Amino acid sequence: MTKGLYIHIPFCDNICSYCDFCKVYYNQELVEKYLEMLKKELQELDQRNCYESIYIGGGTPSSLSCEQLRTLMEMIKPFVNDHTKEITMEVNPESMTMEKLVIIQNVVNRLSIGVQTFHDSLLKGIERLHTKEQVFGLITNAQIVGIQNISIDLMYGLPNQTFDNIKEDLVIVANLAIQHISYYSLILEDHTVLKNKNYVPLEELQDIEYNLYIDQELENLGFSKYEISNYARKGFESKHNSLYWKYEDYDGVGCGAVGKIDNQCITHTKNVFQYCKENVLNIDVNSNEDMMFEHIMMSLRLVRGLDIKEFNQRYGVDFLQIYQKALDKHLSLGTLTLKEAFICCNKESILYLNSILIDFMG
User: What is the pLDDT of residue 154?
Assistant: First the structure.
């Protein structure tokens, strides 16, 4: 059964200097055409799917006008039922008004706010348009309209950001009424402004030092780390993103969206203009070996690790036997731990997971 639905809204009022997601500048006429195609694609989905989670990502979904957001909410309503526990929408503080919050609150029950840092000067350096005061106002207004489940994105390793800046951000977090934090290290992607400017990111040891500090401080504030870059108060772990990390099936709709159904990876064109004319899909069929590796790759991102019993049932194999050589190596090194029916990284090794995964490749 397909448990999740991802909806991509590629429009932005501004393009951040670090972003490599599928996005274009907001254009009212183009948005109207896009929503028409999105509606057709949603109508083609199997209405029998009982989605546990729906995620509206971008881009910047909150860049849509009030009327466009009403249209989007009406398109989503048929997929919301008693099985749907979490409907998330990504928003930016400068574009999410009280009027827009009122429009979405009957459908959306979780906000993911792009904050990155509470230092206005650093925000300008990565071409973000909001201020910290707008973040505070958005959180307050969301609660007023009844949206209590709020997540924020934060980043470290930003241009000119100091360790003291990170400490100051965490002091502010302590006083926010939020339930979830995604805290990422800045990664330079190709074709981004920062990459083109030859910005030098953090060295690995400094990155690990910052990450371990953030882990401890957020733990002190009541946020438990449950994935490499994600922290939540008890019971507020992201249901949608957890589907990815557990390698479950999900539908993806919209330009640049990706879906996974059984052994198929379904990818949409990243060209918004092409998408508005024709829904072009690329379907890759994965071998059992490829799926098993991707499952390991995603699940070892989780602090709890990979569920060995579920893995064996899904693929009809013996995990401990197939990957015995890799397991023997990393269990002896202490980089992996076997806890009951789960295999997991330790607190530090999860930060250099890629070097561990090499030994699990076929």
Answer: 98
Maximum Cα interatomic distance, the chain, rounded to a whole number of Å:
60
DSSP 92-122: -TTT--HHHHHHHTTT--EEEEEEE-S-HHH
Name the token pair of 298. 């995603």
Which of the two residues, 43 and 193, has the higher pLDDT score? 43
Angle at 21 between CA 16 and CA 24, to 5 degrees: 70
Output the pLDDT for position 189.
58
Give, in order, the Cα–Cα distances in Å from 283 to each of 34, 113, 264, 270, 329. 22, 32, 6, 14, 36
CA distances from residue 175 to 178, 179, 222 in whole angstroms, order as listed: 9, 12, 12
The whole-model pTM stands at 0.94
Task: Name residues whose C-beta falls within 8 Å of residue 96's C-beta, 6 or more positions apart in sequence.
Answer: 62, 111, 113, 138
CA separation for the pair 189, 194 (Å, rounded): 8
What was the pLDDT predicted at 26?
75
